[in-house]
Specification:
11-stranded mixed β-sheet, Alkaline Phosphatase, subunit A, about 575 residues, 13 helices, alpha/beta, 4-stranded antiparallel β-sheet
Length: about 575
């Protein structure tokens, strides 16, 4: 009898273990996600992508322990639309984040445009799946729509439980320097002010000397207009640092204007604190770095350390920050449970400089850079994934992928469902990263400059050939220079571009530098390839629907009633008392 009882107990234990094992397979533990996005980092600035003069050991460690993508592409070559596509998995034109004007990014914290509230970010989906969600660093996707406190575009309205950082973006004006655009527009405003002042003086003088028969009421109205004009000039271009260089914690402004010298320390403090607070539950953490955007705030410990001046110092400090995050994951025992992803929002800004000193990065062998339409240098970015035990170490994948692919990848891993009421342009990357499929899910990718399609690519999988056409390219000023030396430093999308008919055709599989355009006389497949891509573009355009434009007109102007303010507007200002700081 004891023997029978023993057998029954034995088989009961086996059954329970089997059920437990099956349950664990059906419901695997949800991984943590740490997404690290640099700002304006060139693909050629990182050691594991070919740079042998800058030291990026921590990013290289990620590549050594994970999977490195060599054809990882941003959906736009400037910040705001690229980040919108990253968070939504959709081309920015679908959400109204592709500008119809030359202002391709949000220019003011107090603009009414931004990522529309009806867009569903991956953070919102994972939040519903029980994830703690946090964003530390740069947002640049809007704050409010109609009132200062509606926060319709704010990170907390897009699925993040916690936000600490800049609602806009770093500007040269956040430091001691000023951008060429700001200097030029200040000069224009000052010229208009002086002209109007001189006119009012002449009218008043004519009235007093009885040379002019003009009512004092008219002169008074002109004087009031001059005063309001001067106030608007001072508010917009005299106080850019005060209005836009601010830090917010959740909905509250906590530093206005921000102290640039300590920003790196507080951003890192907030990043490590978020991980520590949420280490006992699944979390999604988006570290949106302020590096390596001008004015390149760099702490004393890293100044002068690189071979490439202030920009190189800033890159090496950025890599150190990545190392601090990785060390924290190691210390907390989270490394094997966490998918870490590193990228940049687009390529390096080639034209940016102060005086004769260049402050931009390097895009390696790839032509062009930030803002330059569809050239590879502006859209090809680092793409590194590490998840020990789940992804092979040291794997390199030379297949076209997109920042938009992060969306379905995270949603699938986090147990969520993709929205069924809209087009999602990204592809789940896990089968490719794990080596379960040989090719990317992307056959065609489209490259917009604002709302205009400048280029498109076709991956001809059966032959392994990767084709790319350019319908429009920036017109460089002056001719022969590497970039567009315009007032705001960015190449135009709609004006001053060179249109190509037939389009420029390159075979990227043999010419990744886009140095040798193919011609119908020398490439037998020319017309077939162009025809296939044009047909794909027509199919793509059939999926687009009209949406409100977020970056054009009134949506991208300064609205005093929307200005985030610490205190009573317009007397805004506060400094956050530093909590225990992270030593650099």
């Amino acid at each position: 009898m004891n023997h029978l009882q023993h057998n029954r107990n034995y088989w009961l234990i086996v059954l329970l273990l089997c059920l437990s094992f099956q349950t664990s397979l059906a419901n695997p533990a949800k991984p943590n996600f740490v997404l690290i996005m640099a700002d304006d980092l060139g693909i050629g600035d990182v050691s594991c992508y070919g740079n042998n003069t800058l030291r990026t050991p921590n990013i290289d460690r990620l590549a050594r322990e994970g999977v490195r993508l060599t054809q990882h592409l941003a959906a736009a070559s400037v910040c705001t639309p690229s980040r919108a596509a990253f968070l939504t998995g959709r081309y920015p034109i679908r959400s109204g984040m592709a500008s119809e004007s030359e202002a391709r990014v949000l220019r003011w914290t107090a603009a009414s445009g931004g990522l529309p509230p009806n867009e569903t970010t991956f953070a919102k989906i994972l939040q519903r799946q029980g994830y703690a969600t946090g964003l530390v660093g740069k947002w640049h996707l809007g704050v409010s729509c109609e009132t200062r406190d509606d926060h319709c575009h704010h990170p907390l309205n897009h699925g993040f439980d916690y936000f600490y950082g800049m609602p806009l973006s770093l500007l040269l004006d956040c430091g001691s320097q000023h951008s060429e655009m700001c200097q030029a527009e200040r000069a224009e405003y000052w010229l208009y002010t002086q002209t109007l002042s001189f006119l009012i003086f002449l009218l008043a003088l004519g009235k007093l000397t009885h040379c002019l028969r003009i009512p004092w009421k008219t002169i008074t109205c002109l004087a009031i207009f001059l005063l309001l004009f001067f106030i608007s000039w001072y508010s917009i271009y005299g106080c850019v640092r005060h209005w836009d260089c601010i830090l917010m914690r959740n909905h509250q402004v906590c530093e206005q204007s921000m102290v640039l010298e300590r920003t790196t320390s507080v951003i890192l403090r907030e990043a490590l604190s978020f991980i520590d607070r949420n280490k006992h539950r699944p979390f999604l953490f988006f570290l949106s770095l302020l590096q390596v955007h001008t004015p390149l705030p760099t702490t004393d410990n890293f100044l002068g350390r690189s071979q490439h001046g202030l920009y190189g110092d800033n890159v090496e400090e950025m890599d150190w920050i990545v190392g601090q995050v990785l060390n924290t994951l190691d210390k907390e025992g989270l490394t094997k449970d966490t998918l870490v992803y590193f990228t940049s929002d687009h390529g390096a800004f080639l034209e940016v400089h102060i005086g004769d000193t260049p402050l931009g990065g390097w895009n390696g062998i790839y032509k062009g850079g930030k803002g330059m339409g569809g050239w590879e240098g502006g859209i090809r970015v680092p793409g590194i994934f590490r998840w020990p035990g789940e992804l092979p170490a040291g794997r390199v994948i030379d297949e076209p992928t997109s920042l938009m692919d992060i969306y379905p990848t995270l949603v699938q891993l986090g147990g969520g469902q993709l929205p069924q009421d809209r087009v999602i342009d990204g592809q789940d990357l896990m089968p490719l990263l794990r080596g379960h499929v040989p090719h990317s899910g992307h056959e065609f990718l489209f490259h917009y400059c604002g709302s205009r399609m400048h280029a498109a690519r076709w991956y001809q999988r059966e032959s392994g050939r990767l084709w790319k056409v350019h319908f429009a390219t920036p017109t460089f000023f002056p001719e022969g220079k590497v970039g567009c030396h315009t007032r705001d430093g960015l190449c135009p999308c709609h004006r001053a571009v060179t249109l190509h008919d037939p389009p420029l055709l390159f075979e990227l599989s043999n010419d990744p530098s886009e140095a040798r355009p193919l011609h119908p006389s020398s490439e037998p497949s020319f017309h077939m390839v162009v025809g296939q891509i044009q047909e794909a573009i027509r199919d793509h355009r059939d999926t687009l629907s009209p949406v409100p434009q977020q970056l054009s007109g009134s949506g991208n102007t300064w609205n005093p009633w929307l200005q985030p303010c610490c205190g009573s507007f317009p007397f805004c200002g506060c400094q956050e008392s530093l909590l225990p700081r992270v030593e650099l």
